[in-house]
Design brief:
The protein has 8 helices and 4 strands. The chain is mostly helical. It folds into 2 domains: 120 residues, no CATH class; 67 residues, no CATH class. Strands 1-2 form a two-stranded antiparallel ribbon. A two-stranded antiparallel sheet has the order 3-4. A hairpin with a 2-residue loop joins strand 1 and strand 2.
């Protein structure tokens, strides 16, 4: 029977849920695997980064994208609960080491954020996303209404400051369009006089 990457990740998650063995360092690292051992073995936080990264990301991807209702006889909800226990175990281990490692802290924070997101997505799905979509659409509508009301108010205020300004603008434009009749008559008389002299 071949062991898949998801199988390895699930075995790691089960080991992290077995708090006593992990905190007592009763394990050995083999690439991305955490293998239970009776002898105490001390590893640095840097050594743990890749196995932890692999374990969570492999299973988070499975929970997020798989259509299978169960994985190793565990439901997705049970896997999410196992994630929470494993994160608590890792945080407790980090506190007990009394070491400060910024890279390790960043990794754990990233894992916690992703587990939180996938938990919210699994529990609420569209019920979690739909209110955000509706809120954004409603906010956009409100901004359009505010913009339109500003234009109306500006036009109203300018009309109060200069009453009839729209009418005068309209009259000026119509006066320019209509030719002056007196000027046309004078032009015609001059043309007739020119013809007679010729």
């Amino acid at each position: 029977m071949t062991t898949t990457l998801e199988d390895i990740a699930f075995n790691n998650l089960q080991f992290l849920n077995d708090k006593e063995d992990f905190l007592a360092n009763r394990y050995t690292l083999k690439k991305q695997q955490l293998i239970k051992e009776d002898d105490d073995t001390l590893y640095s936080l840097s050594d743990l980064e890749y196995p932890l990264f692999f374990t969570f990301h492999q299973l988070i991807n499975h929970v997020h994208s798989s259509y299978e209702p169960k994985f190793h006889v565990k439901t997705k909800k049970e896997l999410l609960d196992m994630f929470q226990v494993a994160i608590e175990t890792i945080n407790e281990y980090y506190v007990e080491t009394d070491n400060s490692n910024i890279e390790f802290e960043t990794l754990i924070d990233d894992i916690e954020d992703k587990v939180f997101f996938i938990t919210q997505y699994y529990r609420y799905g569209w019920c979690h996303r739909l209110p955000t979509i509706v809120k954004d659409a409603f906010s956009s509508l409100c901004m359009q209404l505010i913009y339109s009301s500003r234009i109306i108010v500006d036009e109203y205020i300018s009309d109060l400051k200069d009453p009839g300004s729209y009418e005068s603008i309209d009259e000026e434009s119509t006066d320019e369009d209509i030719p002056d009749l007196e000027d046309e008559e004078e032009g015609e008389e001059e043309e007739e006089k020119g013809k007679k002299t010729n």
